[in-house]
């Protein structure tokens, strides 16, 4: 199934696995270089990803297919396979104790199941203007709060890099809100021209993302004022890249962003505004079928 | 008014709609009937501008899609959007401001729950509520009575009567003939992508008898039930 997903977006699966390994190793090295709390973030991240496999409905389906004893074996093997990259990196860093702890927790996690979708409604400050931030906030509020906590820690230990990392963590989370194309009905329903539709999406995104990121910017500006220029630079780059993500999404709409667009989007990280006009125009064309 | 002229729609080499010509007038309710695969949903998608097609669709006001409330057979909902937020979203999409959405909740839906947790009937009622609050001129209701409880069916029938009285155009498809005979002024029979018959209200009983005859034939006897 994973191979099909890669093929759908135009990736050769073998190449994708190599690139993902390189990316994973790169991000892991970056994280461990930037903060002393990296090990805790790393373990939390691994267990959060593994937690997705413990979803009740998924477990029930496997139980019906394979029975109780087989299910436990499958779940343990699944979790251990998924945790291999994290385990390998911890061994590489000579954190043998933490690697052992990860495998113990991984095994325990395989024996429990829980609903990843909660039955109660999570409050969101963005309910007046559905839907990206509203749903995104509900899916990732704990990451946002973790980022705020990291910012406070960054100030307490006077580690500016950690503060920047927390800001980037929030931006990456926000960019992910625009990663999937919505059902065409939710674009069609608008009585706007493509240009107005796109500008309205961008306006909402800038407003809401600023309201999430500004507390971090303000804390860093007040408590580490000597780096205010760098703080503002990352803030503006984050916003510019957000615009790039939105226009890239609709430039591929109703399909997901393909490999070529992904490549150009990656180029935008260096200088986000460069491709915005091109993708904006392309988005207008793609949306003109649904918006008149 | 909506006028459909020489409408053709193909998926690859398969012709789904073949020379559809029809006029929908204000203040009237139209029923579209046909077997599964006859082309009803495709026709609705073409009128809504969700599909590209050959031919012409003219409306007043124009374009149709900006004044159309479209109730899909199986409405789609995001995973973590509440009923209230869904209504808010569709009203925002048409720049319609509803100060108190709860007041308009005539189907008494749990608006603060995630819509994805609703039953099939509740989802349909939510989607219907949302398009009604958009203040549309035209309505396409694809299977509005499917999966909905009997009390709500009565309410939906009354809503359709009210829309007719308000001079709106309502186009309905349903597999339950009685729901159409209760609400429609005209029924159009679609088969293999073509309208093969159009019937006024006075002749609905003849159409029903004909459809029964054609559909059932001697199929029940073939079962040899004893």
List key phrases describing it.
heterodimer; A: 292 residues; mainly alpha; 2 domains; 13 helices; B: 226 residues; alpha/beta; Rossmann fold; 6-stranded mixed sheet; 3-stranded antiparallel sheet
Describe the structure.
The complex is a heterodimer of chains A (292) and B (226). Chain A folds into 2 domains: 35-110, no CATH class; 132-287, no CATH class. With 292 residues, chain A is mostly helical. The model of chain A has no long low-confidence stretch (mean pLDDT 87). Helices cover 74% and strands 0% of the residues of chain A. In chain A, helix 3 packs parallel to helix 6, helix 8 runs parallel beside helix 11 (228-252) and helix 11 (228-252) packs parallel to helix 13. Chain A has helices spanning 2-8, 13-34, 38-51, 56-66, 68-92, 96-110, 132-156, 160-176, 185-188, 194-223, 228-252, 259-268, 276-287. Chain B has 226 residues and is an alpha/beta fold. Chain B has one domain: P-loop containing nucleotide triphosphate hydrolases (Rossmann fold, 3-Layer(aba) Sandwich), CATH 3.40.50. In chain B, helix 2 (83-93) packs parallel to helix 3. Chain A binds chain B through residues 117, 119, 121-122, 127-131, 134-135, 138-139, 182-186, 188-191, 289-290, 292, and chain B through 48-50, 52, 63, 65-67, 70, 72, 76, 78-82, 84-86, 88-90, 92-95, 112-114, 117.
